Structures are given as C-alpha cells and as structure tokens.
C-alpha cells in the first residue's frame, strides 16, 4: 500500500527538522511526504530534498483545515493509498508508518499513541523510546494491537491515518474552520456520523516536542469562539468546553441561550 505522510507547517522549523529525521529512521519508510507550508517561504530551505513542499497562502488565522485538504489532495494525486497525518511538532517513532500500514483498512480512522516530551534543547532520536509516556486520557494498546475507541471525541489530529478511499468518503476537513481549534473535532464527528469507527493502533507511537503554550489559550480566544460557533451550528453542541469554561472563570466569555460569546 503506497503511503504518504502529510504535515502542515507555519514556523516550527527546528521541530520540522527533527520530524524529517524521524521519518528517515522508519523501519518502513513512507513512499511520499507532502509538507504544506502555510504562508511560510522558509520551509523549502528547511526541507530541501527530504520531502515535497506545497505552498498555501495564510492570513492572520492559519488555514489548518484547508492546508490538510491540499496536502491530502497532492498525496492522492501522487498515487497514495494510505494517508498518514503528522503534526509538525511530532517526531514519529521508528515503527509509526509500518504499524499504520499494517493496520490499514477502508472505513476506519486510526490514531497512534502520542507522548508529550519535556522541554529540552534537543532530543536524541536513538533513545527517544525511553521517554515514551503516552497521554493518560487515551488508550495505549500493546505493540501490534488495535483497539476500537468508544468515544470519537478523543480523536486528535497530532497523528492519524486513513485510506484514500475513507478520506474521499468523509470529504476531508471542513474548511469553514480557520485558526485554532475545532476542525479536528469536526472531522471526528463527521467520521462518527458516517459510521466510521475510531481505532487506536499500538506501536504507531509519536513524540510531541515541547513548546510554550498558554492555559487557557487566551491568545486564541476569538478563534475558539468563531470555530466553536461553526461547530455548534453543524453538530448542535459546543466543542472545547474545557477552554470555554476556563475563559469564563477569568471573565473573558459568558454563556448565553444561544451559546458562548465574548464577555
């Protein structure tokens, strides 16, 4: 099965360099790697010949959904039968592509376990496996084991895979979303509504490189409200409830009969 990795990026060049190094160490190398640069002209110099770069224009709100769709379209046009989406912050474990390829089948959505790495000036890829400590809120199947998830809301876009046929069936990411949040939850809800199960693939591990974050992400408050409204209009409930409630505790938003609004 011809496999393509799709990565969308804006900045994070050091993280992208480590991801490229991780992909070079795969026990089953990907057949293609499409890096989608969102308004970032420097990405080509970072990538060199390690992947092919697709440029997508970006405004103040990064077009994450549209960029993923463009990357998938390019990969499928290049003959890909399996799409592996990998967040730019993630270094793939050496068996990630192999495990996704071994588990691949139509009409499923697969995710592998992700470990959040501690802050460090650099990471040694040869010993990265010793830091494996997958996110406690998600299942961690044994290497080679595949578990069907009970809740599509646990899906995240850091690392996931699906066949080209499944991607086409689901229609990709909804491009009404831009900026921070919502589009990945929407994608999972689309899969759920279509009867496409979410599965956890043991051994398809990835390591999320550390970067500074705000908790709650106050710099993304406007995006959370705009994208939350898009989601609520499409599905009848609001995502990102934890962030919204944290914003409310700080007096930044309030709940109304019609949903969340800025305070």
TrEMBL record:
Q: Which family does it belong to?
A: Belongs to the glycosyltransferase 2 family.
Q: Annotated Gene Ontology MF terms?
A: glycosyltransferase activity
Q: Enumerate the UniProt keywords alphabetically.
A: Glycosyltransferase, Transferase
Question: Pathway membership of this protein?
Answer: Cell wall biogenesis; cell wall polysaccharide biosynthesis
Matches recorded under Gene3D superfamilies? Spore Coat Polysaccharide Biosynthesis Protein SpsA, Chain A
From the Swiss-Prot or TrEMBL record, give the protein name.
Galactosyltransferase-related protein
Domain Galactosyltransferase C-terminal residues, every copy: 159-199
């Amino acid at each position: 099965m011809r496999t393509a990795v799709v990565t969308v990026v804006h900045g994070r060049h050091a993280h992208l360099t480590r991801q490229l190094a991780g992909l070079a160490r795969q026990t089953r190398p990907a057949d293609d790697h499409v890096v989608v640069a969102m308004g970032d002209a420097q990405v080509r110099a970072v990538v060199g010949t390690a992947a092919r770069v697709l440029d997508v224009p970006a405004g103040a709100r990064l077009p994450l959904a549209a960029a993923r769709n463009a990357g998938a379209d390019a990969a499928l046009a290049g003959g890909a039968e399996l799409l592996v989406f990998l967040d730019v912050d993630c270094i793939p474990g050496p068996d990630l592509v192999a495990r996704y390829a071994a588990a691949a089948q139509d009409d499923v959505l697969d995710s592998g376990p992700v470990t959040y790495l501690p802050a460090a000036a650099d990471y040694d890829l040869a010993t990265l496996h010793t830091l494996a400590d997958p996110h406690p809120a998600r299942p961690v199947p044994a290497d080679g084991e595949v578990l069907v998830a009970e809740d599509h809301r646990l899906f995240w876009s850091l690392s996931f895979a699906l066949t080209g046929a499944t991607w086409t069936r689901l229609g990709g990411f909804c491009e009404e979303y831009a900026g921070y949040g919502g589009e990945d939850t929407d994608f999972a809800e689309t899969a759920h509504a279509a009867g496409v199960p979410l599965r956890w693939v043991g051994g398809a591990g990835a390591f999320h490189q550390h970067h500074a974050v705000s908790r709650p992400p106050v710099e993304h408050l406007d995006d959370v409200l705009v994208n939350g409204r898009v989601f609520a209009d499409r599905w009848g409930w609001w995502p990102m409830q934890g962030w919204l409630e944290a914003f409310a505790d700080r007096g930044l938003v309030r709940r109304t009969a019609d949903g969340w609004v800025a305070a």
